[in-house]
Amino acid sequence: MLISKDTFIDDHFLLNSDAAKQLYHDYAKEMPIIDYHCHVPPNEIEQNRKFENISEIWLHGDHYKWRAMRMLGVDESYITGDKSDKEKFMKWAACVPKTIGNPLFHWTHLELKRYFDVNDMLSEMNAEKIWDKVNADLQGADLTTRKIIEKSNVELICTTDDPIDSLASHKRLSHDKEFEVAVLPAFRPDKVLQISSPAFQEYVQLLSEASNARIEHLDDLIMSLEKRMTYFHEHGCRISDHGIYGIPFSPCSKEEATRIFLKALNGEQVSMVDEEKYQTFVLRVLGQMYHDHNWTMQLHISAMRNNNSKWFEVLGADTGFDTIGDQPIAAKLNGFLNELEKDNALPKTILYSVNPQFNEVIASALGAFSANGQVGKIQFGSAWWFNDHKEGMTKHMSDLANIGLLSTFVGMLTDSRSFLSYTRHEYFRRVLCRLIGEWVENGEAPKDYKYLGDLVQNISYWNAKHYFKFPM
Questions:
Q1: Which CATH superfamily is domain 50-138 in?
Q2: What pTM value is reported for the model?
Q3: Secondary structure (DSSP) of 391-407
Q4: Mean pLDDT for the chain?
């Protein structure tokens, strides 16, 4: 029989104490999911896509798996190349047992178990049977994109959207009475800040067309961004996002920022010094706009992207060649937040670092920029990218608890392109309950399950619900 009754992912997976088990099963498990940051395509939700095979939903675009396969010596033709979906799945299946200790090992088997009722460890020995089983399930009516989302108990999703996006799928979804999950856009204006990019001029032209306004001056750029932000707001957006290596902080006047912008618009080379000045000015203006709209600003920092230039030329960005960066952040982070704060323009902000050595730096900033009467205004975002594993999540929450306040944390997100990634919320909740359960077992927290259960439910769901105030 394909489906085994014995599995290492049992009901008490990761729950290593009686307290952890009670907190998870009685309080965390059934809470809805607010997935306030992800990269799933909204058009695939609108169209209620049905996947032809497991590789389409599992391997297409998943650079986490691609990195592991490359490290195991798999030829690129089985990763991003021209091999068939079945051949790619078979290669991945052979890799899975060798990923033990990596979160991919747990994620793979959680997804197989929750969505396909497969309890066996995937390997080259059973790959053919599992391929047939899961593909047959995918042909049914219960594993389309919408059904997966509903099955996962998701209440709200925020996608990641460029300011030039028409939001056509979001508009149609908002009027679709047959699908009750809110799908809202998130404003990601990274390309506006990438003034040294060869594509900057072209992007400014696209932004001009989207905003129906000529952009010939920095004032025009800011006006166009404001128009697009208003448009996003009208379609439910309440959150922005930025993927930046380091926090830009080199104070710059409007006149100087204008000079730099016009230089780039004319196709001239912009120095690194001028680039940071421009980015500081524009990001500060955006922060003011977010504050005025009562949006939340997300800053994802410390990722060094596209390090392998040879493969970047072949495959482009987001293909598995990024690493952890180590540029110091304390002075610039605090300086940037202070620039907004002193003008009463600091929005609600979530700070993420892919480098865990900066955990304490970020956690300490939360208290320095708290707001009168507002709970958890500045957040330390969940363990991200290279850190969203058991140890990384535990360290993140421990550092937050030690220096800030775990009780105000807005919890987990998928940050994923895959519709099967909602199990990461389960994984996170199990780790959360494990951590608090250990405090109970060690006598560091009271065995008061009503108190601790409320804490777990707040972090799993309610804190995010109250913090973002999404239109729902």
A1: uronate isomerase, domain 2, chain A (1.10.2020.10)
A2: 0.96
A3: HHHHHHHHHHHHHS-GG
A4: 96
